[in-house]
Amino acid sequence: QVHLVESGGGLVQPGGSLRLSCAASGSIFSINAMGWYRQAPGKERELVATITSSNSANYADSVKGRFTISRDAAKNTVYLQMNSLKPEDTAVYYCKFAGVVLPLASREYWGQGTQVTVSS
After folding, report:
1. How far is CA 96 from each of CA 13, 46, 89, rounded to the nearest angstrom?
2. How many helices (H) and strands (E) does the chain have?
3. 70 and 50 Cβ atoms separated by less than 8 Å
4. Among 38, 75, 89, 103, whose Cα sits 20 to 30 Å from the Cα of 66?
């Protein structure tokens, strides 16, 4: 079992910045990738950014150049630095874990989500 704790959401004005964090804990053997997805009201959940254990990052076109994903391997934590936020970035942001958990099974887990609201 893996537990994901997300933090850093909130209300910000257009053009502002927020930093999301997601810490994974539990019976983790190895992490293949962690990432962030978001779901706006009335829309499907979509990928925002992912990062692999080799630090290969992937971004949605809508956030390229504005968002940066990074990780602290020692803390099993992934971060999402969000700059130049727009009202269309408003959504619930979910952290996702993909890796191997004890006793050596591949699993995926989702966090409970953190609200990001961009509004003046």
Report:
1. 26, 12, 18
2. 0, 11
3. no
4. 75
Contacts of 65 (CB under 8 A, 6+ apart): none
Distances (CA, A) of 108 to 41, 61, 73, 88, 95: 24, 24, 17, 27, 11
Task: Note the pLDDT tens digit of each residue in 43-79.
Answer: 999 999 999 999 999 999 999 999 999 999 999 999 9
Residue 78: how many other CB atoms lie within 10 Å: 28
Token readout for 92 is 């619930």
Rounding to the nearest 10 degrees, give the CA dihedral for residues 45, 33, 19, 22: 90
Of 119, 111, 83, whose CA–CA distance to 25 is shortest? 111
Identify the helix (H) or strand (E) that includes residue 25.
strand 18-26
- Which long-range contacts does 44-48 make (Cβ < 8 Å, 24+ apart)? 45/94, 48/80, 48/93
CA distance 67 to 6: 17
